[in-house]
Every structure is written in structure tokens, then in C-alpha cells.
Amino acid sequence: MNLKGKVALITGGGTGIGAAVAKRFVADGARICITGRREGCLDEVIASLPTGAATKCPGDVTKPEDTERMVKTVLSFGEKIDVLVNCAGLGGMGSITDIDPVDWRKTFEVNLNGPFLLMRAVIPHMIKAGGGSIINISSLAGLRCQPKATAYSASKAALNMLTQQVAFDYGRYNIRCNAVCPGFVYTDMVEKGGLGKLAERIGVDMFSLVNNVFKDIPIRKPGTPEQIAGICSFLAGDDSSYMTGAVIPVDGGTAIVDVFPTGVKRAILELQR
Asked: Which CATH class is domain 7-185+222-256?
């Protein structure tokens, strides 16, 4: 991919998919600003990149004053903003009668309101510059249900529609907006989430559980942050200039099979033998 000359703002850029996107964009020629709540993580990512290729803006995407500061930082650093990647996310788990309303609201604040605030702040600058590309990191959970993923699935489904609405409203300004829907991607967030807790409960290591579950999908293994980053680089570049409003599963074929709950049940039985 060729992102030479482009300037990007990447939220959630300190870990997981966001960090992989940051590294891929720089490798492909872009200059970037990464944001996140944990400044130490941002520093680690920047230290791994060539000098002058990246800057940081610690902050919380749910706070309007922070999102405005993020945009000001990237404009000061790169004098423009060609690409916005909304990668900051939160996994709120629990069925509708189990989840705490506080967790429900927080999940929507991060997964939906955060991208809303960033797009609201960035789009006027893209209009002035003659266009841009917005990439929202959604989830396969926004396209199909997962066990007890009420808040997460609902927030990601809403993000998919918000993506298409932005594409519809701002296409005339040469602003493209697409959503990437990863399936299961092995990150720190996953280890701390539902499957990580399940592995601990049944007394197996996370790697064994994951690999058993994903024997049932076409690619037969979970995804990596780097694979998602490659799709994002394509959407950020000019080769995807006729793509907007797309909601793209990047899931190893998970969407075409019934991994949950059958895959989990089978994996548990095999691992407990």
C-alpha cells in the first residue's frame, strides 16, 4: 500500500489492532498521531517507529474536549488530516438482565459516541482539504449475535449504520467512510474477556481453547491485529477511492459458519478429556 504524504489520526493506538494499524500506516509511508488513555502504551508504540513519523495525544474519546485536542494535535503535527481510524473500543458483556446499566452506557460511550465525536471534529477539516478517508473498527458482533454480548453487539451494529450515514451525507465532499468488522482477533483485550475467563474456569490455557474453537471456521485459526491493519491501509489509500459505506467482515469466514456455541462446546469437551 502507498500512504506516502498522508496524515492519519488513530484512536486506541497504544495496543492491539490500533497499535498494529499505527505501525502499518507508518511502514506504508504515512505520518500519524495516536491516541489512547494509557500514555505509556502510546510511548512504546512511538518508540518502535522511525523518528518523526508519529506523535501522541493521550486522552479519552468519550470527552468532547479531548477529541478536539486530538484533532488539534494531528493538525499541528501534520498540517492536515487525510485519514481517521476509530479503533478505541470497549467490550461490554452480559445479557440484557445481567449487564449493569453503567457498563451499558460506558460501552456505547466508547464504541459509538467516541467515533461520533471524532468524526464530528474531523469532517470539517476534511471538507476544507477536499476529502479524506474514515475507517471505523466495528466487529462481526455488529452483524450477528454472540452469547451475552448485548451492549457490545448493539453498539457495533449502531456504529455500522453510523458509518453508512456518514458515507451517504459526506460522499459529495469526497469523504469516504467504511467499517471494518473483525472476527476473533487475538489481542490482550480477548485474554481479559469472555474466552479468557472461560479458559481459566475450565483449567486450560487460552491458546489451546482458541485454537480448538476456531477449528470450525474456513481459515481454521483466529486473526491477528496485523491482518486487520492491512485492510485499514487499503481503505486509507487511493486504491479504495471508489469504496464508501462498506461494512467489511474480516473474520476468516466466521460469518458463514456457526462457531458459537457449537465450537466452544466442542472445544471444552475435547480439552477436558
From this structure: alpha beta
Assess whether the previous peptide bond of 261 is cis (omega < 30° from 0): yes
pLDDT tens sequence across 79-107: 999 999 999 998 878 899 999 999 999 99
pTM, full prediction: 0.90
User: What one-character-per-residue DSSP string does 79-137 give?
Assistant: SS--EEEE-------B-TTTS-HHHHHHHHIIIIIHHHHHHHHHHHHHHHHT-EEEEEE
Using alpha carbons only, give the angle 181, 169, 61 rounded to the nearest 5 degrees.
55
- Domain spans of the chain? 7-185+222-256
pLDDT tens digit sequence for 14-25: 999 999 999 999
Say whether 242 is catalytic: no
The torsion angles phi and psi of 190, rounded to 5 degrees, stand at -65, -45
